[in-house]
Amino acid sequence: MTRLSVARTLDHCTVLGPGTRAVIWVQGCPLRCRGCVAAETLPFDGGTAHSVTELADWLCGVPGVEGVTLSGGEPFSQAAGLAALLDEVRSRRPGFSAMAYSGLRYEALRRGGPDRRALLRRLDLLVDGPYVASRRHGLRWRGSSNQRVIALTDRYPHLASEPDVSAGVELSVEADGSLSWAGVPPAPGFREGFEERLAARGFVLRAEARRET
């Protein structure tokens, strides 16, 4: 049985792709981009193991979402399992869209092994490339200007004409009273400064943001 190592999931998110989306942050990344805001997702020995069916059941049961965004961690390090997940979800929920982040360039993924190419074929959108702290920030769904939003299908033709500005970040209050957040930080050092301001007011921010790949 194929199992995926997952750092975190989120039912509803509006800042990591078009519309309202579920998000899966996978666990494990071979890259070490300077300034990564989710270092907790980098080790391959962390996270929680889930079967493809478990995750498909969850995605098919989330109301009001048009698709899923795959982040991490490096999704293409678990490409076979994620491709199988998208196949199972779409067999039950046709038209479910898929977007993924990768610290690897699109061209390298296309030249990669069959598992990586299989996941690429199942995506509507890809955000590619490593996070580079010295490059321009404040862009839609990207941490730095070297990264690209690449349309792999014609699902979202309107994106090319929309403003390329930051979608911001979202905060969630967890059952234990702690805060978690999702999104692409608008500038280097955002997470650290934000955590300090929250701590000064007695709040704890859980380490569960999307990494800037």
TrEMBL record:
One of its GO terms (molecular function) is 4 iron, 4 sulfur cluster binding. Keywords: 4Fe-4S, Iron, Iron-sulfur, Metal-binding, S-adenosyl-L-methionine. PANTHER family: ANAEROBIC RIBONUCLEOSIDE-TRIPHOSPHATE REDUCTASE-ACTIVATING PROTEIN (PTHR30352:SF2), PYRUVATE FORMATE-LYASE-ACTIVATING ENZYME (PTHR30352). SUPFAM superfamilies: Radical SAM enzymes. Its cofactor is [4Fe-4S] cluster. It comes from Streptomyces eurocidicus. This is Radical activating enzyme. It holds the Pfam family Fer4_12. It comes from the Bacteria.
